[in-house]
Structure formats: structure tokens, C-alpha cells
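Below is how a single chain appears once it has passed through the pipeline. First comes the sequence as given, then the structure the pipeline wrote out for it. We keep one example in the README because the format questions we get most often are answered faster by looking than by reading.
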Amino acid sequence: MQAMSIQLQNSVLRGVLKRLHYPLEVMLVCVRWYAAYPLSLRNLEEMMAERGIQVDHATVHRWALKMLPVLAKVFRRRQRPSVEVSIPRRRQARAHRGLLAHR
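Resulting structure:
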């Protein structure tokens, strides 16, 4: 997490993070949990309070609105290595005929 936060501080997020007064790690954890899991903003507020961090659900929502588009753009730029997967011809033929449609 430390390497990612250093990398993000030196990148596009710098402009977004100008007036945000919480530590970057707290903001990234809240936004990540909000985006990755089916949690409500009030659930996140309670979870952070259990960890000793007082943050309002509206603040987490503002973080998400500011950070998610920027993070999406950063992660879209990264190229994933292409892995070619070969499927045996018999399996391709069965799938084409609809025999594997029930799986």
C-alpha cells in the first residue's frame, strides 16, 4: 500500500488531493471498499469509527466522486500482459453446438 500511495501522490491525484485533509491511506481504503464491495456510505462510516477514524458518510461520498474517475483513468492506462489461452478443438466444437451452454 505504501508504494502505491507514493506513486499516486506523484501522479494525477495530486491535483485532486489538494484540499483533502485526511491521510491518503484512509481515503484510498474508504474509496476502495466503497467501490469494491456492496457497502453503504453509513456502513463505511461505522467501520472507520471502529478503527478510531471519525469520518462522515458525506465526506466518503465526496472522496469517491473526486477520486474514482481519476483512479479509473490511471488504471486504464496500465497495459495488462496479454496471455493467449488455447482451447482444444473438441471443446470449441462442443461449445459451438451448444453442448456446454448449460455450464
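The helical segments are 2-9, 13-16, 24-36, 41-50, 57-77, 89-97.

See the next section for the split statistics.
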